[in-house]
Amino acid sequence: MRYINGPLLVLAGAGSGKTSVITRKIAWLVQDCGIAPAHIAAVTFTNKAAREMKTRVSALLHGKELKGLTVSTFHTLGLNILRRDGHLLGYKKGFSIFDASDSLALIREFLKDGSARAGGVAEKIQWQISRWKNALATPEQALIEAATDASQAVAAHIYSEYARNLLACNTVDFDDLILQPLRLLQAHPDTLTAWQNRIHYLLVDEYQDTNACQYELVKLIV
Length: 222
What we know:
Low-confidence stretches: none
Helix content: 55-70%
Distance between the termini: 18 Å
Order of helices and strands: HEHEHEHHHHHEHHEH
Mean pLDDT: 92
Structural class: mainly alpha
């Protein structure tokens, strides 16, 4: 828990206290090491888990010791990056966020065949687009990947239209809350440096559950 000179991975079984290690390390960094809480971020996967972590941290730190501390989901961290710097990717202030039902409705609009819309095709395409995004595949890369597979080709073409439509409407979907911050930081070194200067310690709960996109975002920031 007291190692701070590089990456540290804690391997432990369920219910063995991994989250307690994270919350107590946050308290130790602030109280014993003198690290400003604004330079610390802890991320997890669900809102419930984030609330639990916040509750535990609040029992250990008080007042100014909590000021600026980030405890959130991966997606909330990505949202904060986009709110601050999303204009660099063409997003305007106050962009909208599509939930799963919004995303599915848009995909159905791109399907010309009504019977296909009724047959669960839209849901399969939605899943495929999400898989591509989590694997860091752009619409152009998806088109290349799907060139020899007719069913995948339909999904890839819709992915391209879908991505263009979201940006034109100043909208992101749930997967974009990780993918677009990653692309933003990769494309803008000065912005990446600003975030690295802001987050000195990034603690990830349930790290084994990260997908490629989440992993790359964490690796980039730290």
